[in-house]
Write a structure and sequence with these properties.
Layout (H helix, E strand, L loop, with lengths): L6 H12 L5 E4 L11 E4 L5 H7 L5 E4 L5 H9 L8 E5 L11 H16 L3 E6 L10 H7 L1 E4 L11 H13 L6 E5 L7 H12 L4 E4 L2 H10 L4 H11 L12 H6 L6 H7 L6
Parallel strand pairs: 1-2, 3-4, 4-5, 5-7, 6-8
The structure holds NADP nicotinamide-adenine-dinucleotide phosphate.
Length: 274
Amino acid sequence: MTGATGRVGGRVLARLLERGERVRALSRNPAAELPDGVELAVGSPGDTAAVTAALDGVDAVFLVLVGDVETEVRGFTAALTAAAPRLVLLSSSSVVHPVPHRIAEEHRAAETEVAAATARWTFLRPGPFHSNALWWTGSVRGTGTVRCLVGNRPGAPIDPDDVAAIAVRALTEDGHDGLAYELTGPQTLTSGDQVRILARAAGRPIRFEVAAAEQAVAAFTAAGSDPVVAEGNVAALRSREVPWGRPNGTAERLLGRPPRPFHAWAAEHAAAFG
Ligand SMILES: NC(=O)c1ccc[n+]([C@@H]2O[C@H](COP(=O)([O-])OP(=O)(O)OC[C@H]3O[C@@H](n4cnc5c(N)ncnc54)[C@H](OP(=O)(O)O)[C@@H]3O)[C@@H](O)[C@H]2O)c1
């Protein structure tokens, strides 16, 4: 698997280990701290030679792509042979967005490359993660304020651990090949709603403001994004045409229980906002 040191992948790893599965983690970091018993392979998902070596003897792959997604996916799929293992790709609900933006383009490109390389694919297309609220910890602690960069459109955020639980089903069961799952959480919430829930959980007032679109573009650019890409992404994230807020029942069906609501995540992470 890739992304084992990350948010969703870390939970996939933990859940696979709980099941007694053997796991090899491909990480860019040669000093990655992984649980006992996990085999570390060093390299990025785009490094075809590293991926070829890491795939040896593997039955199923969980693929997380971060950064230059299109280059990484090409490097990764070049390592797949006719006897390719089952492959579960962490994609994004943005692939079905009706407005053009870079996040959607790169995930669409990843899905296209993977589907061309193997028939044994499953695409997980989650919407925004509950854990995106961690972007706000610094300003909440510093000024008691969230200045939201992504606007205040209603969404149906999902717990990354629920995405991981579904990934583990797709990795370990038959019947998911060739299927794409759009995954939502159980409730429609705006960012402002999420901040009110966080304030209750943390037991402190938190002011909520929406940053002007130009300020959001400037912030993403300062964080390393190309300005044109940042402008397109900000416009899409704030667009009324993007259907963010529709809990669709797919996660519940795959989990066999309701997906975890945002208030449960907020209660667990309240200390980060205190
Ligand atoms: N956040 C959302 O709301 C959301 C919603 C839908 C889809 N997604 C998609 O989910 C994926 C991210 O999943 P995640 O949150 O679990 O990932 P993550 O925790 O951000 O990181 C995943 C892995 O990427 C590597 N990594 C982390 N930061 C990096 C950086 N700055 N440059 C290069 N590599 C880096 C690390 O692997 P190494 O061990 O190799 O360093 C890490 O384990 C993305 O494809 C994203 O588009 C996100």
